[in-house]
Design a protein that fits this description.
By secondary structure, this protein is mostly helical. The chain has ten helices and no strands. The protein folds into two domains: 2-46, Homeodomain-like (Arc Repressor Mutant, subunit A, Orthogonal Bundle); 49-162. Helix 8 (108-120) crosses helix 9. The chain starts with a helix and ends with a helix.
């Protein structure tokens, strides 16, 4: 699964045949089929942890009650991802373009929490502000996954300053 995750995240799901996964993992292709059935089920096994990983990532935000601190924690979320997890998150970003695997409801707990926070901070349209911040952080997360955390630090500081949280 680790080899498949690496290849799916860095080469692309459609571009990687099971024969390559098997070769790079040092196993037979038959073993992949015996264990998972097919390549799609291998991907589904990797994706099975998505919701749990998101819940773990969002936990500190969801438990926070202070509106400004909710916004701060959300802004800092992309910068807290362990570099060892980058391939998993790269795969998530790649699959956002695949209707079969994209699930926008996974972000809803974060959007709802941000909407309440922006409401508490007296923003004119709290839900729109929450979705705006989500879009900004999506772009920052993409940069982090492509170029590393350091490349995105100026944007982190800019967004923190935009919300008066520097």
């Amino acid at each position: 699964m680790d080899t498949a995750l690496d290849l799916f995240a860095n080469v692309g799901y459609d571009a990687v045949p099971t024969s390559r996964i098997a070769r790079e993992a040092g196993v037979s292709e038959g073993l992949i089929f015996r264990h998972f059935g097919n390549k799609k089920k291998l991907l589904e096994a990797i994706m099975a942890s998505t919701e749990r990983r998101l819940q773990e990532a969002f936990a500190g935000v969801i438990e926070e009650d202070e509106p400004a601190e909710v916004v701060r924690k959300v802004i800092l979320l992309p910068f807290t991802i362990d570099e060892n997890e980058y391939d998993f998150w790269r795969l998530q970003f790649k699959l956002k373009w695949d209707k079969e695997y994209y699930n926008p409801r996974l972000m809803e707990p974060l959007i709802q929490k941000l909407t309440v926070a922006f409401g508490g901070l007296q923003y004119r349209d709290p839900e729109l502000e929450a979705r705006f911040l989500e879009q900004i952080l999506d772009t920052i997360s993409t940069q982090i996954l492509r170029e590393g955390r350091e490349a995105a630090l100026p944007f982190r500081d800019l967004v923190l300053a935009k919300y008066g949280l520097q």
